[in-house]
């Protein structure tokens, strides 16, 4: 595009001006600058229309700074943990909260060991798992319906080792004990067989 101005005064004096028009289309606070050019390009630019280049502020990209940079994609900095939501903005990104069973700032989420140092989680045995835990009971006890508390067994397991009678000893934390029918005696060597 060539633009020429011809100015003429009342005494027939005239002057011609062909300005170099530089268009700055930078958006979102981008700063315009004339791109570096060779001398051949400089000659071609003279008396022409030039679209300037843009220096984009942090958070924007594109030829004219019109695109918001996706900080959540992690192209320049590490973004959020895969378990949380990343919210992008022109100035950076914000990570959501770590999910239940995890602790951290959203960029780093670490599994919480619910069992470590916490004796109130389970009545007897606590086993940590990823983002959770489960409770168990010692021998002679069974897990209650709340899946946390243990109670002494009230009856022997069907596959007990007793020769005749099996019962639960309430004085020994629900432990299975063997006994014999009337007329028989418990063998002291194994405490299971009846003679």
UniProtKB/TrEMBL annotation:
Tree of life domain: Eukaryota
Protein name: Mucin
Taxonomic placement: Eukaryota, Metazoa, Cnidaria, Anthozoa, Octocorallia
Disulfide bond found in the keyword field: yes
PANTHER family (UniProt xref): EGF-LIKE DOMAIN-CONTAINING PROTEIN (PTHR24034:SF209)
SMART domains: EGF, EGF_CA
GO molecular function: calcium ion binding
Short name of any one Pfam family annotated for the protein: EGF_CA
SUPFAM superfamilies, A to Z: EGF/Laminin
Keywords: Disulfide bond, EGF-like domain, Repeat, Signal
């Amino acid at each position: 595009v060539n633009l020429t101005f011809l100015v003429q005064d009342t005494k027939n004096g005239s002057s011609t001006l062909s300005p170099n028009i530089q268009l700055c289309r930078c958006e979102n606070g981008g700063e315009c600058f004339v791109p570096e050019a060779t001398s051949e390009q400089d000659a071609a630019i003279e008396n022409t229309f030039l679209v300037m280049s843009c220096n984009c502020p942090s958070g924007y990209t594109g030829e004219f700074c019109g695109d918001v940079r996706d900080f959540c994609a992690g192209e320049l900095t590490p973004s959020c943990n895969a378990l949380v939501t990343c919210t992008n903005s022109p100035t950076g990104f914000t990570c959501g909260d770590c999910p239940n069973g995890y602790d951290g700032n959203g960029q780093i989420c670490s599994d919480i060991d619910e069992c470590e140092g916490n004796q109130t989680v389970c009545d007897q045995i606590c086993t940590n798992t990823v983002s959770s835990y489960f409770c168990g009971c010692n021998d002679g006890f069974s897990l209650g319906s709340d899946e946390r508390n243990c109670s002494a067994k009230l009856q022997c397991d069907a596959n007990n080792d007793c020769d005749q009678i099996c019962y639960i000893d309430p004085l020994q934390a629900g432990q299975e004990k063997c006994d014999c029918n009337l007329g028989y005696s418990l063998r002291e060597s194994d405490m299971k067989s009846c003679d």
